[in-house]
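Record type: ASSEMBLY
Status: queued
Input:
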Amino acid sequence: MTSLDRHRERVQSLSRRARAVVLAALAATPLAFAALLAWRGPAPLLPLPAGTAVDPAALSTGGWIALAALAVLRPVVFLAALVLLVDLFGRYGRGQVFATASIDRLRHLGWSLVGLDAAALVQGLLAGPLLGRLGAAEPFLALSIGVGPALIGLAVIVIARVMALGRALEELEELTV
Amino acid sequence: MAIVVNLDVALARRKMKLTDLAAAVGITVQNLSVLKSGRARAVRFSTLDAICRHLDCQPGDILEYRPDGDCR
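Status: finished
Output:
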């Protein structure tokens, strides 16, 4: 077995294990968010300023649904990222490391991570006016600026470019007799 | 590319099949076909060495440089 074969096998083995872990997270995450939503309502899922008092009794059914829709924005983006990760690890597990589709998944994963912080920003901007309009809290404007997932997402997008270079090198290797 | 591969001519002269050469050289028929058809981007010296040894020829018998781009 050549060094290249050993690396390929290691990537496939690790990817299969990582995929199993992410699949478990993908299964558990919606349940956790649904439980939190049912138990504590949408407020804990929103980036509210400290000390903001939300009166759940003031929420009508329509108001609760609107608030819940805003609250699940970030979890939905997170789930999308997990789905992309499951697909990506699945492709790596099948040996499709430098395939075009794998590189596309990696790039989309990067953008979904950027989307996580963007979703938090949107939630923060809309939560105050919405709660105020629904009469559940005093109107406020919150600016939720986070860069953690976004920075990682940008790094992943750059890595996707590196993988595209890897694909070009692999093609050269395949056409080397 | 201006490098022309004349492997098919060399095989015909020696009345050897591509599959036989592939087995003798130790590379797959597909890879050797890539070389024969001119689609290869690079050739390892080890491959060239094995081909020349089994065909009893020089690299120039297999590889030709045509600078005007008149490739087969």
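Annotation: Chain B is about 55% helix and 10% strand.
Annotation: Residues 26 and 61 of chain B are 20 Å apart (CA to CA).
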